[in-house]
What we know:
alpha/beta
Amino acid sequence: TEGNKPMPNRLKILCKAYEPHIRNAFSIVWIDYTAKMVSIIVIFLLSLVVAKSYAEIVTLTDLTFEHQTQASTGGTTGSWLILFHVPNCRACDKLKPILADLSMDDELHENGVVMGSVDCSQHAPVCHRFFDPSTDKLPMMLYLHRGKLYRYPRDEEFGTFDDTKLKSFLLTQYAQRSEAQEIPEPPSSVGILWKQIQLTAGNSPMVRYALMAMVSIIGFTVFMLIITLVLNSFKKDKSMKSEEEEPKKNQ
């Protein structure tokens, strides 16, 4: 047993001799493991960010519609499937989940198709730009693609639509099932004001009567102004003629 006593001392010496190498190897393994874990976490977070960037329905307004879609300028913001809707509309509510599913479709994302929606109860001017509320019914889906406008056909109930039919329309069938139309130009400020007046007057008889009275007053005022100008001009001409005749009489 006494001959075996020096062994622990030798082991300690060996451990001390190799301790720096062991620590270095452990540090390298730990750093490599940490780097891999950080890379995996970063990739996972980026995938969530990218997925969220297109897995949503973009809310469009009077102020943001043209800027985001670049509909009239033919910009490169992709193709847009836009749902025009109003609150408390069952058919509209049935379409929203379908658009939400399509917004997460990889093939549509690769083809640059973006889902958008417009609340026509809050943003009437942009809605009236694309359809006539007196004749067209909501919900309405429009496809803006390569500078043209395609209306999703209403030959079947919106409630029976599914994401497969709508996806086929967006990728291949839009030209067969809908006629290509020119995209209307953005309305001017005067046009927006006139549309708002028409909408308000159509929904409220009192407002319509008030507008008619106001137009009548303005028309009467303009008429009286014209009559006054004509009479003043006639009196001025008459006075000038009388002044020209006075010297002749004196002679």
